[in-house]
Amino acid sequence: MVVDQRNAGAAVTVNSTGQAYPVDRFFGTGQSSDGVFTLQQSSTVPAGFVNSIIATVTTADASIGATQNYLLRQRVEGYNIADLNWGTANAVTVTFSFWVRSSLTGTFGGTLHNGNGDRFYPYSYTISAANTWEQKTITIAGDTTGTWEKTNGIGLNVIWSLGTGSTLLAPTSAWTATTYTGFTGQTNLIATNGATFYITGVQLEAGTTASPFEYRQYGTELALCQRYYWQAATGTSKELTVGWYYSTTQISLVMNMPVPMRTGPTLSQVTGTDYYTIFSANSSDGFSSLTIENAGTTMVSLLSSTQVSGTAGYSGLVRTTNASSYIGFTAEL
């Protein structure tokens, strides 16, 4: 939970089915307004860790609709589970472990499922003491059926339920084709306003026992995250790259990704009048936004989507020029 490129530690609000990332690779999904929770990087941790995620209920939903969900999730790329041989007779058993702390006690639930959404393993765990860190370990026999992605698509969805409707609650832990996102009798965090739920030290590994958490160097972890998301710049006076006047009214620029991304990325940005500027030999021009012309996994070419006025062929430094300026590239699953 150490890498947070998007928010630098600020909270995100989960009030829709869209993906809201409190830290890299973990995201929350919810409902429009029935219940609302926030997710944020936290420094409240068990011994040996630096950061966790905290979920805080800000609008309670004590009567969850039968098909509604409030979830914390991560999607795992197919390349990273290919060695488990799920979907075959040689499917490998895995052990899923994590540290958790909640203001509520009781049975909690979640599920693992494939990218196609037709093979589910619901699981449960018990939080025994309020506001106390506890490590949970769940051993899961590999699925011998179903289709499991083994390249750069969604190989595995890992879900912690913070609230699940009745038709999506599983009565038992076993692989099934039925869609489940929670566990029968689970505590629904979303039902209690102000309730909190922390998680860190998440690890899924081959075998029947949980090994000590694998700590990786920060640079390694950041590069692994940047395969899926890279924030190129945010704020004022941040250099993006060198660009040039493609014509007298349009700027072109190329940006190299720090690591090969999972797929050609899409652009996320904040736009506004003169949020970005090119400084060339004979002029400086502000423009409001960029559009992707071509996107590869290692390089992206972009064009200014608002008109400028300059000399075709001249080049210059492209820089952010507003405190709200923001450029990111996403190849999330």
How would you portray this structure in words?
- This protein is mainly beta and 333 residues long.
- It folds into 2 domains: 12-223, Sandwich (Jelly Rolls), CATH 2.60.120.260; 227-330.
- Helix content is 3%, strand content 47%.
- It is built from 1 helix and 22 strands.
- The protein has one helix at 218-226; strands at residues 12-14, 20-23, 26-29, 36-42, 52-59, 69-77, 94-102, 106-113, 120-127, 134-140, 154-164, 169-170, 182-183, 196-206, 229-245, 251-256, 266-270, 276-280, 284-287, 290-295, 299-304, 315-330.
- Strands 15, 16, 17, 18, 19, 20, 21 and 22 form an 8-stranded antiparallel sheet that branches. Strands 1-4-5-14-7-10 form a 6-stranded antiparallel sheet, with no helix packed on it. A 6-stranded antiparallel sheet has the order 2-3-6-11-8-9, with no helix packed on it.
- A hairpin with a 3-residue loop joins β18 and β19 (284-287).
- The mean pLDDT is 97.
Fold blueprint:
Layout: E1 12-14, E2 20-23, E3 26-29, E4 36-42, E5 52-59, E6 69-77, E7 94-102, E8 106-113, E9 120-127, E10 134-140, E11 154-164, E12 169-170, E13 182-183, E14 196-206, H1 218-226, E15 229-245, E16 251-256, E17 266-270, E18 276-280, E19 284-287, E20 290-295, E21 299-304, E22 315-330
Parallel strand pairs: 12-13
Antiparallel strand pairs: 1-4, 2-3, 3-6, 4-5, 5-14, 6-11, 7-10, 7-14, 8-9, 8-11, 15-16, 15-22, 16-21, 17-22, 18-19, 18-22, 20-21
